[in-house]
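Researcher: Can you fold this with cytidine-5'-monophosphate in place?
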Amino acid sequence: MTVRAPAKVNLHLGVGPRRADGYHEVVTVLQAVSLYDELTVTALPGAPGELDGPDEPTAADPPPVAVTVEITGEGTAPAGAEPADDVSVVPTDSDNLAVRAALLVAEAAGIRGARLHLALAKGIPVAAGMAGGSADAAGALVACDALWGAGLSAETLAGLAARLGSDVPFPLTGGTALGVGRGERLSPVTSVGEYHWVFALADGGLSTPAVYREFDRVDDGRTEPTPADAVLAALTTGDPVRLGAALVNDLQAPAIRLRPALGDVLAAGQGLGALGALVSGSGPTCAFLAGDAEHGAQLAAGLAASGLARVVRQAVAPAPGATLITD
Ligand code: C5P
């Protein structure tokens, strides 16, 4: 089973006070963009304990499902090579959200004694603030549900997704959505037309908890997230000039304080005529809105030539959510 799952950009990320559970109350508008990870799950013969090989001690209670992971593509080290220090490596163990997603589907579907191989072809930049790990988890939920014929409802899958992370429910549905709570409670949003985005990827990652901590350090007295009215109104017009002017990210200032070079990247995109420019989520990727595909290509070329970004990518939005593309 192969599933394709999209990256996202936050058109609006309003951050409120820190809650008792450590999360922040947010009001966010998410749009799925046409950068995808492809996740293929394959059932392997044999029992879970056999994955450890004959020399390993046999566990008294083998895991209900054993998962092996193979990762290729964007931001991953070539086979046999040591990863560079500034490249974030996707984990292949149970720290990988997709592995945890597979285990949750197995539990919900009553699957025991299965072996699973999970091949992840990454097209979404790693540790970029574009929710690539969340897309993989959403993809694994859909792929495992199909593989095991579990027949879990969209509601059940969304509930499992929310347990995995605040950003995991969105790539299940894709499109454009309003997120509240810690960002996991979604409702669809009217979005007219097609938007052309350019993403400038920085070297290395930026830790989401660290950016939220930096937000708290300065914005401690905040009682409400910034409301999303301007972005929601702009989306109903299909006018990229209006949308560009309405973009908001309350995590942008803290992200720039932690990584001042991001301010230079945003200024470069604005200087090249972007209709809007903002840090994507908690960063470090910067997102730029273009008027059309041709404008997007010019912006991408200018940003690549500036030498301020490690990689530049173009994408169209809104994109569909996690979709089964083959079995
Ligand atoms: O939900 P997720 O595991 O993706 O969140 C990662 C971290 O980001 C949390 O541990 C928390 O520090 C921060 N976060 C937050 N408020 C949110 C979402 C995430 O403080 N609404």
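Model: Folded with cytidine-5'-monophosphate in place. Residues 23-24, 26, 165-167, 182-183, 208-209, 212 surround cytidine-5'-monophosphate (CB under 6 Å).
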